[in-house]
Specification:
Elements lengths: L3 H11 L16 E2 L2 E2 L7 E2 L5 E4 L9 E6 L5 E6 L24 E2 L11 E20 L6 E7 L7 E7 L2 H5 L16 E4 L12 E5 L14 H6 L1 E10 L17 E11 L8 E3 L5 E3 L5 E2 L5 E2 L30 E4 L1 H6 L6 E4 L5 E2 L5 E2 L3 E3 L11 E3 L25 E2 L5 E2 L3 E3 L7 E3 L7
Parallel strand pairs: 10-11
Antiparallel strand pairs: 1-2, 3-14, 4-8, 5-6, 7-14, 8-12, 8-13, 8-14, 9-10, 9-13, 15-16, 17-18, 19-20, 21-22, 23-24, 25-26, 27-28
The structure holds calcium ion.
């Protein structure tokens, strides 16, 4: 029996970058000396505790006879009955620890001739970055196995890897093709000779997601491979029992049987979180750092849009940068042109400036308000209402720097609420101050 831990160390050795995570502890690893650094959730067997469904499981509908033929053993038959605890073979047995006895998920009996496809689907409930998928069979492996992945919770599926004794005939893929930098998102087909991998003592499939892909050691800088290893769901389709299986022609009691399924990977947080938690709605999400947010830390927080979001790398944590809104806004918008124009230093535009402020940084007063220079621009009272006199002023808009309203002839005062020397108040709304006519009554 191949354990998860053996696989873990096998892949940790295969990819040096995975060795880093062996040293993770409970500390916040996203900061070092208060500086943001690239961080990762722990490497784990991501199927543990996940929802696994199978298109076919023996004994669910009717009690049925199951016969398994293990290598170097005689055919062993038993009864599968979901109403009897000792005779069950549910999908839970794919992820149990297999102690003390090896437990197997077993499909319903397959009728000859083909097709024989039966699928297992694993729903992660969130994006994960996968390193390997390992399937340990209870008997000889099927003739063909296809692994598919979805990045959108099962709406679309793309091939991940094929295994078959006849890759071209069955999947239309030449066996053992070479992957170049131009086709790194292509699924390969590996010949499956008798369904047995030479590395293991039990029929096993071990698919390493990055193996043979040129950028596998440069994952940080390869968006294509970052996508390639990302999945929210995995589907495994078993197809066609061995053609040379002596049972094929005579028995109607053939089954797919898997004792262990493990998928190595980690919760996808784009280098901005070192753990994932279940939120109040029961959904998995990253505990985002570096001023990022989203279930995968895939965007900057609303006030941290001064630079474009980027995945953290070992060289640069790409922390999201706060916009300077002088305390008058909690939201800004990234503008690419401004960012380019600034020489990649600042591209944020503050939105919905409060306290009667306006401008890209909420740094001046909006129309009909003026700047009170006795307080700082960040002060809530930095902008005061013009409050121009309804009759004395020609308009409502004052000088934004000193608050002076545009007074009509003969009217003075910041608000235009006084008559100038030599003028007297009238009852007219149009001419509120009239020149005194001197000497008329002299
Ligand atoms: Ca098991």
């Amino acid at each position: 029996m191949i354990s998860f831990h053996r696989l873990f160390f096998f892949f940790a050795l295969l990819y040096p970058s995975f060795q880093d995570i062996l040293d993770l502890d409970e500390e916040d690893t996203c900061y070092e000396n208060n500086k943001p650094v690239f961080c990762l959730p722990k490497f784990e067997n991501v199927v543990e505790g996940k929802k696994i469904t199978a298109s076919s499981t023996c004994g669910l509908k009717n009690k049925s006879r199951i016969c398994l033929k293990k290598r170097n053993e005689y055919l062993k038959c038993d009864v599968c009955d979901s109403t009897d605890r000792t005779k069950q073979h549910p999908t839970d047995f794919l992820t149990d620890s297999d102690t003390p006895n090896k437990t197997c998920w077993i499909s319903e009996a397959l009728m000859t001739p083909p097709p024989h496809n039966v699928s297992i689907r694993i729903h992660f409930g969130k994006s994960f970055e996968l390193t390997y998928i390992s399937i340990v069979f209870c008997q000889d492996a099927p003739d063909s196995v296809a692994l598919y992945k979805s990045m959108d919770y099962g709406q679309h599926w793309t091939p991940f890897q094929y295994y078959s004794s006849s890759c071209m005939d069955f999947y239309g893929v030449r066996p053992n093709q070479t992957i170049t930098r131009d086709n790194e998102q292509e699924a390969l087909c590996s010949p499956l000779k008798g369904g047995v991998s030479a590395t293991y003592d039990t029929p096993t499939i071990a698919f390493s997601t990055l193996e043979h892909r040129p950028n596998s050691f440069n994952l940080d800088n390869s968006p294509v491979l970052q996508d390639w290893v990302t999945a929210t769901d995995i589907k495994i389709i078993f197809d066609r029992l061995l053609q040379n299986n002596a049972l094929a022609s005579s028995y109607m009691t053939m089954h797919y049987a898997v004792s262990d399924l493990s998928i190595g990977g980690r919760c996808k947080c784009n280098g901005h979180a070192d753990r994932c938690i279940t939120d109040e709605f029961g959904r998995l999400k990253c505990v985002c750092k570096h001023n990022t947010e989203g279930r995968d830390c895939e965007r900057c927080k609303p006030l941290y849009q001064d630079k474009p979001w980027a995945r953290a790398t070992k060289q640069n944590a790409n922390e999201c940068v706060r916009c300077n809104c002088n305390g008058h806004s909690n939201v800004c918008r990234f503008n690419k042109e401004l960012y380019e124009w600034s020489g990649h230093t600042s591209g944020g535009i503050c939105q919905d400036c409060k306290h009667n402020t306006a401008g890209r940084f909420c740094h001046y007063c909006k129309e009909k308000y003026y700047r009170d220079v006795t307080v700082k621009i960040s002060h809530e009272q930095a902008c005061k209402a013009c409050d121009c006199h309804h009759y004395g002023s020609k308009g409502k808009v004052c000088n934004s720097a000193n608050g002076q309203c545009p007074c009509k002839v003969g009217v003075i005062g910041r608000k235009c609420n006084l008559c100038a020397t030599g003028y007297q108040q009238t009852r007219s709304k149009i001419v509120p101050c009239q020149r005194k006519i001197s000497g008329l009554y002299n």
